[in-house]
Amino acid sequence: MRNKVPEATLVFWAIKIMATTVGETGADYLAVHVGLGTALTGALMLTLLIAALVMQLRMRKYIPWIYWLTVVLVSVVGTQITDALTDKLGVSLYASTIAFSLTLAVVFALWYRSERTLSIHTIYTTRRELFYWAAVLVTFALGTAAGDLATEALGLGFLFGVVVFGALIASVSVIYYVGGNPVLTFWLAYILTRPLGASFGDLLSQSRAYGGIGLGTINTSVLFLSAIVVLVIFATAIEQRSVRVVPAREP
């Protein structure tokens, strides 16, 4: 099996941030505006996620459209998990942020204990891929809780949230480029892109009365889904070109 996770290029991070935005606005649109409610939206998205994840696990190499479809669905489900805890069960954002942080630490600990690496460059066994997707799901749930905690509970607002989380990601990038641990900086950036994307999505979609620009969840979701499709097509072309150019290794 070839490595199942793409290189963390600029295209990777662009799609990741937009996928988190779609997770925020898409979940809100289905649950509130379509009227499906949190429970039905969560069940529907979980079913689609399981189907996409089965496809992803069956592949023997990185297939861009399957991989990024799974990421988008994980984003929606991760958002729904946090929203269900907050809105339906009354769990505070402080508690859910701490709980998801501890859960992610446990996933990483079990992953490292089993595989002795957390690198995305070594996802070429099914067990490692399962650990990877478990970590990704928890990062989305954690990012949703942390983002809502910062922008809503602490009252920072959507614009300030975008600035703060963007600055944190920039700081992590600087640490990486001056010699920081690549695995640690990758996962820190991966976690932070979730609240950045959520804050950006809320900034665009929410009405001006709530501090947003007022594009609405439909327009924001369609805009970013269209951009994701374009970038995934581009990533697919790059992947196919690299397969043609790089000769197969001798056994």
Automatic annotation (TrEMBL):
Coiled coil: none annotated. Pfam families: DUF347. Keywords: Membrane, Transmembrane, Transmembrane helix. The chain crosses the membrane at residues 29-53, 65-85, 91-110, 130-147, 153-177, 184-201, 213-234. The keyword ATP-binding does not apply. It comes from the Bacteria. This is Membrane-anchored protein.
